[in-house]
From TrEMBL:
InterPro entries the record matches: TrcR
Pfam families, per database record: TrcR
Biased composition, class Basic and acidic residues, residue ranges: 177-190, 224-233
Start and end residues of each stretch annotated as Disordered: 177-248
Annotated protein name in UniProt: Cytoplasmic protein
Lineage: Bacteria, Pseudomonadati, Pseudomonadota, Alphaproteobacteria, Rhodobacterales
Length: 248
């Protein structure tokens, strides 16, 4: 089902100006019913100005009136010939201005830890261009010396489920093409759920890092006795007669 443009703003307008049920508005705008309820309570979309779907040729008043009388009826988006084919248009995803400066770090992370991903897959995942990806791959980016690899999920540029899906798709393609993956590459293909559900790998505490090959060996009692001095050795003081000779 096609969704209206500015769906959340449209939902705000419908909540404020109609008696439609939360379910009807949610289905029409592609939102969750609880999200629409949050809009009505003022907890969601605070400060968002309502977008009139009637004035903007997305709904008719007759359609709204009919749906208000029948809560089980779903709203139908008004046919707009100019919008035909819009959903099929493909391109890099939109990235907010506040996060665009983080894209090089996420690209470097993907290139480093998931080299099986193509430039097109990375472009769609984090919303960037192929020339930018290529410059980071070849380390010709103007700021490559200051870029540190950071997980795009941690930066909020994509969801973990989206990253897992793209990685699995790339892995399937490599298997189909007959390419053999190394053990290290195969471990990177573990999904988030599998990774969290696996056994915890034992790690050496940071405090004793570098002592991995250090071992304790047992010694015989005779060896211990030979190494430990006896009491005479500790208290081997010169005799008083020796001190008198030195004074003379």
């Amino acid at each position: 089902m096609n969704k209206p443009i500015m769906a959340k703003a449209t939902a705000v307008w419908l909540v404020d100006n109609t008696t439609l049920s939360f379910k009807q508005i949610a289905e029409f705008c592609g939102l969750h019913e609880l999200e629409v309820q949050g809009i009505a309570d003022g907890d969601v979309a605070t400060g968002v100005k309502g977008f009139d779907p009637i004035t903007n040729n997305q709904l008719t008043q007759d359609e709204i009136d009919t749906a208000e009388k029948d809560p089980s009826r779903s709203l139908k988006l008004k046919f707009n010939p100019a919008a035909v084919g819009e959903e099929k248009r493909r391109g890099p995803r939109y990235t907010p201005l506040s996060k665009r400066q983080d894209r090089p770090a996420s690209i470097l992370w993907l290139v480093k830890f998931h080299p099986e991903l193509t430039d097109g897959q990375i472009s769609k995942l984090v919303g960037t261009t192929k020339p930018t990806i290529q410059s980071i791959r070849e380390r010709t980016h103007w700021n490559i010396g200051n870029i540190q690899p950071i997980d795009p999920v941690a930066l909020g540029l994509c969801k973990q489920s989206e990253l897992d899906a793209v990685v699995q798709k790339a892995a399937s393609k490599r298997v189909k093409d007959g390419e053999v993956m190394t053990d290290e590459e195969r471990r990177k293909l573990v999904s988030t759920e599998q990774s969290l559900g696996g056994d915890t790998e034992p790690r050496i505490p940071t405090a004793i890092s570098g002592l991995e090959t250090f071992t304790l060996t047992q010694h015989d009692d005779d060896d211990v006795d030979r190494r430990v001095p006896d009491k005479d050795t500790f208290f081997n003081l010169p005799d008083a007669s020796d001190d008198d000779d030195e004074e003379e």
